[in-house]
Amino acid sequence: PIPGSQTTTAEDGSRTISVSDISSDEFFYAFTSLRNDDLLQRRLVVLDDIEVEIQHWPNDEAWADFVEDRIRQDLPELIDAVGLPWPLDRPLVIQESFAPALVGHGGRSDPSTHVIEVGDEFDDQLVLHEITHVWSNSDLFVGRWITEGLAEEFAAVVDAGDAEPADPRRT
Questions:
Q1: Which of 45, 46, 148, 155 has fewest C-beta within 10 Å?
Q2: What is the pTM assigned to this prediction?
């Protein structure tokens, strides 16, 4: 809820949020995200005993192909890099979504629902980073800094592939 707001619901179920307690010298913003996930196209990818459901926007097969390639090509290497078995006993969902961008993120992962949301960019490292959160999350560590740091490190190691590792001493 927005502080100082009032929500009314009409008979048809639509809702209106009104905010009247804003002075002219204050900055005010609110993000609104409307979506209908029933319209998403679904593709199940099975790799050994791992199931990943890709949910993508209609007519965006290229994005779904890109994510499927990450699963088939990079997920085995990511599992080896992490050094722990795949922890999920149900499908992981990777969903094409603009919602993370509304708050300045490229993606987000919800370990309680096993849903990853990423934007429509073709960003290998971002997809791998979010997948890494199936291990590196609040079930394993308390501090967010360590879960984000490990996700970024493992994604970078896998995404680098055969490339020469960066020298951290260079400035």
A1: 46
A2: 0.76
